[in-house]
Structures are given as structure tokens and as C-alpha cells.
Amino acid sequence: MRRAVTVTVNGAAHAVEVEVRSTLADLLREDLDLTGTHVGCEHGVCGACTVLMDGVPIRACLLLAVQADGREVRTIEGVAPSPDELHPLQEAFRAKHGLQCGYCTPGIIMSAFAFLEGEPAPSEEAIREMLSGHLCRCTGYHFIVEAVAEAARRLAARGKA
Amino acid sequence: MKPAPFEYVAARDAADAVASLARFGDEAKVLAGGQSLVPMLALRLARPAALVDINGCRDLEGLEESAGTLTVGALARQRDLERWARTRSPLLRDVLASVAHAPIRNRGTAVGNLVHADPASELPALLLCLDGSVTARNAQAERVVRADQLYLAPLTTSLAPAELATSARFALPPEGAGWGFAEVARRHGDFALVGCVAILSLDGAGSTAHARLGFFGVGATPVRSAAGEAVLVGREPTAARRTEAAKAAAAALSPDGDLHASAEYRRKVAAVLAERVLAAAVGRCQEPR
Question: Do the strands B28-31 and B50-53 form a parallel or antiparallel pair, or are they unpaired?
């Protein structure tokens, strides 16, 4: 069974026909070739596929593609302001080596993006709690915690400038 | 990790949804937040012939507090409840902070969590302890199912396949009541190995006027402990009596053992958590307001 879906991704509208059992992660990766959204566990646990839908972080593997009809989605490809400039969050991850194996980084960035909007000066505890939704396969996460804290500082400095 | 094929129906409103459910007999599942259902589809633990998506049903939205009762529509996300709880109910705020993670709570609905009936889930135990109920309807009629008549077995409620849970109601704790909540999980946001919730209120003489003690993760369904509550009601909830209540409650449980925790471990942890949440509840009763 197939359905027509219109979805806005990173500001561009797309009309695609999807299998109703496919997920938003499938739509992004298979139909739109936006492979920055990674799929790890495909049942909502690892958080690698997290994207923003109407500004709110969700698991792209747990939303049917048909349910994204009429919605606005932002993926990791839509975070940097231009092809040769990184977002402060991405800069902070680079500066603090906040990647580890890097597989689940796109999901972490998307969650952190929404998290820092709501909590611009988070405590380390709050950062760790946010990251607990992104425990994929690595361990440690210390540099990732530092990267999110650094991103908060950079965003605050930019806000003041 | 892909769901088996199914027919997808986007319901316009609750009446349309129950008409679709009736059409598919017991072959359809309701899709609300999808945070439990979609993993089950992906793992092919569920292979329904049809999904009835209620996300477009405006008449199932809403979250309303009135005269000490909180009514939560089938489409209220756990995140909506969390936002409400921040200013209105520290008990619900604490409980919801332990339900999965923000991206899951952004989609997952409170009512969906309640009727998914995972025995290790927090909200069903809370529904029991807050004398709650779920309102359900089929194509013909609507009925109210009390929490203590809702949970039959793991992932199994007394709702019929053709019934749609349209809302849930929680009776908020009485004025001046204290509460406690604690769980042990492998990682923050995981399903609890054992969890416990208590609500207590005292009369003028310092005796327990109202007691609720509930557990999750310790058996086939969430449990309210009559044995534990009976030790407390009508008496002063001293430390010794709280220990007695916790022991009586744990002794009456029949937890299962699994890969993560043996039955014996769960029973021991249940007693420890019960003591802690009862102490917290008593402390909060005595806090000046």
C-alpha cells in the first residue's frame, strides 16, 4: 500500500510516494538521499535517527513516513548555515572531539540543538540526562558532554555579540 | 527491522476511528504516539492487518484539570503532561522524568502508555495509585474502566480490540498529601527493574488517613499493595511501621525473574524502595505548605 506525502525538509518541499510501512528515516535516506540521518537500532533506543519535526526532536525510525505529511522536518544536513560554515554546535563538537565513533552524532546534534534552545545554560547533569537518550554503542561520553557545554557557551557568546 | 505490510487508515475523528476498528475485527491496532507500537511492528512482535492512525482526531486532544481530577485526552503527549506537571504536580513531574527520553515523550502519548500495559511502565502504576480510570468507546457505546479492572496480564488490558481508549482520568492527591517515587533501572529512561510509588495523607492526630502504595516491574501487571496500605491506615506512619508496611508489601508480591534481575532480587529491592518512598511521602506530608 502506497501513499503520496508532501513534506518540507530543511526548508525544501518534497512530494514523494511512500510505502505506508516505511518510516520517516526511510523517506529521508531512501527517497531524499539525505543519509546524514543514521539508523542504528531501528526501534527507538539508540537515538541515532533523531530529527526535528516542527522544531521538536523525535525518533525518525518510530514515525511512519505517511505521518510526516504536511510537516516540517530538519535533519543534520539542515544545521550548518552554509556549505562552508559550521553551526556553533558542530564547531564545539569538532573543538572538543565530541564524536567518539561518530555513528550516532547526527542524532545527538539534533537533540542537543532543541535542548539548548530550551535550556541555554544547562547543568552537566541536565546534559547527561539529555544524552541518556542517545546511548548507542560507545561508552564514556565525557567529551560529548563537554562539547554540548562548549556549544552552550558559544551560542551564548554569539547571542551577546 | 521493517514492519510487515499493513493497511493504513487515517481516522478523521474518534467516531471514524472506532468505525474502522469495527471493520477490521481484532486485526487492527490503534496508532497514537507509536513509541511502543512501531518498535513492536519493526521487531515483528505485532503484525496487525491494519493500523488506525488517530493523530488527526482533533476530538481526542486535550489535557484538563478540574476539581482535583486530571483528564488526559488520547492524543496528549507525555511531554504535554510533563509541562503541565512542572507547575501543578511534582509527583507527576518526577514520574514522567523517568519515562524514556525527551524525543520519545515528545511523540508518546500518556493514554497509549497506559493501555499498552507494560508491567514495568511507570504511568499504569500511577493510574492505580491515583484511583484513575480509562474511558473507552466502540462504535456503539462508551464505558469507563477503573484502573484496578484494566490490567490483566503483560501488554493485556480488559479493553476489547474494537474499543478505543479516548481519555484517562487521574484523581490528584488530596490537599496536603505527601508522595514518593523511586525506581531502579539499568540506565536512566529504561524500563524499571522495580519501581514504587506512594501517596500518604495524615489526619489531625498524625495518623495515616489515606495511603496508596503501588509497584511496577514486579509481576504481570502493575500492583497496588493492599497488604502494605493496611499496615499504615489509621496508624501513625513511624519508621518502624513503614518498615513493617514495606516488608508486608514485598512479601505479597510475585515478581518474575529474568536476564536482568532475579525474582528474589526484585522482591528485596521492592522492600527497600517501598521504605524509601514511604519515608519521602511522610516527610512531604509534614512539610509546611
Answer: parallel
Domains of chain A: 2-78 (3.10.20.30), 88-157 (1.10.150.120)
Residues B163-176 have pLDDT tens digits of 999 999 999 998 88
- Residue B262 phi, psi dihedral angles, 5° rounding: -75, 165
Give mean pLDDT, residues B29-33. 98
Pairwise CA distance, residues B91 & A53, whole Å? 29
DSSP state of B14: H
pLDDT band with cut points at 50, 70 and 90 for residue B287: low
Average pLDDT, chain B: 96
Whether A43 sits inside 8 A of B38 (CB atoms) is yes
- Angle of helix A142-160 relative to helix A124-131, nearest 10 degrees, comes to 120
Q: How many Cβ pairs within 8 Å bridge chains A and B?
A: 84
Q: Which residues contact A102 (CB under 8 A, 6 or more apart)?
A: none
What local confidence, expressed as pLDDT, does residue B189 receive?
Answer: 80
**Set of cell numbers at residue A11:** 526548508
Q: Is B7 helix (H, G, I), strand (E, B) or coil?
A: strand
In this complex, which of B5, B8, B107 lies closest to A63 when CB atoms are compared? B107
Distances (CA, A) of A84 to A81, A87, A91: 8, 10, 12
Helices then strands, each counted (H, E), chain A: 5, 5
Q: Closest Cα of chain B to A91: distance in Å?
A: 23
Contact A42 B1 (CB under 8 A): yes
Q: Taking CA atoms, what residue in A is nearest to B100?
A: A133
Residue B288 has pLDDT above 70, yes or no: no
Residue ranges of chain B whose CB lies within 8 Å of a chain A CB: 1-8, 10, 31, 34-35, 38-39, 41-43, 51, 53, 55, 79, 100-104, 106-107, 187-189
Please check whether residue A110 is in contact with residue A74, taking contact to mean a CB–CB distance below 8 angstroms: yes
A133/B1 Cβ within 8 A: no
Half-sphere exposure of B62 (CA within 13 A, CB side): 14
Distance CA B84, CA B91 (A): 12
**Residue B187: predicted pLDDT:** 82
Q: What is the mean pLDDT of chain A?
A: 96
Q: Do A50 and B103 touch (CB under 8 A)?
A: yes
Q: Give the tens place of pLDDT for each residue, A34-73.
A: 999 999 999 999 999 999 999 999 999 999 999 999 999 9
Asked if the model's pLDDT at residue A114 lies above 80, the reply is: yes
d(CA B210, CA B203): 9
- What's the rounded Cα separation, in Å, for the pair B166 and B221? 21
Judging contacts by C-beta atoms under 8 Å, the chain A residues touching residue B2 are: 21-22
